[in-house]
Amino acid sequence: MWRRFGQMDGGGLYRQGGVMSERPSIVVLSGRGRHEDPWHDHAATSHALANVLAPVGDVVVRSTLPGVFDLDGVGLLVLNLGRPVPGYVEAQIDGPPEGWERQVDGLVGWARDGGSVLAVHQTALAVPGSDAFGEVLGGRWVEGVSGHPEIGAMRLTLASGTHPVTDRLGGVDAFDERYCGLRVAPTSQVLGWVHDDDGEPHPALWTTQAHGGRTVYSALGHDARSYESPSHQELLVRAVRWLVA
């Protein structure tokens, strides 16, 4: 795993073994197979995420194929995953569930060992039934409780002065969905809210370190239009800088 190491010209170095770099290694995991769904274009949003994060790290995008959760040397893991289409997992199209369970266990272990995770949007629905994965995320979509109004212009209201990710940023304006009714762990620190059509606030951005690493979850990112927002881009860059600090 890449770790912060020393100072250089006011910045820092990252080290894996004897290899030094001024930039962290960032892997965007793009949902495919049992980690995709029919409502999200994972390829487009993962590409958009990679473009936004390129100024702050060395970014690669990987599809969630068997073996993709080998995280040796990864400084930041970006999760852009979804909930599988009903019947896909049962058909074992991409292998038996036991193999995938071991891979998810490896991801959870990596995160608990100090790994940094940025999770977006539909990742709150990913890997259903795994409490350990939910612990790493710091919150979850709850079937029958969570939902969202029609996609459109929206605002994410941010807590100011409480965390480096949001301090003095004010808010995020984007074309996106407003996830409402998410279940947030009591150990997570909520940093942003969306409002439903009745004006009620709902947590949509938080951080957690309770599992042993650092995670930022943002409910934004339904499609590529969201990542065109300058304020959304700024939020993501701030999140990455905090996660790898």
UniProtKB/TrEMBL annotation:
Taxonomic superkingdom: Bacteria
Alphabetized Gene3D superfamilies for the sequence: 3.40.50.880
Domain (ThuA-like): residue spans on this chain: 103-242
Signal sequence, renumbered to the chain: none
InterPro entries assigned to the protein according to its UniProt record, in alphabetical order: Class_I_gatase-like (IPR029062), ThuA-like (IPR029010)
Protein name: ThuA-like domain-containing protein
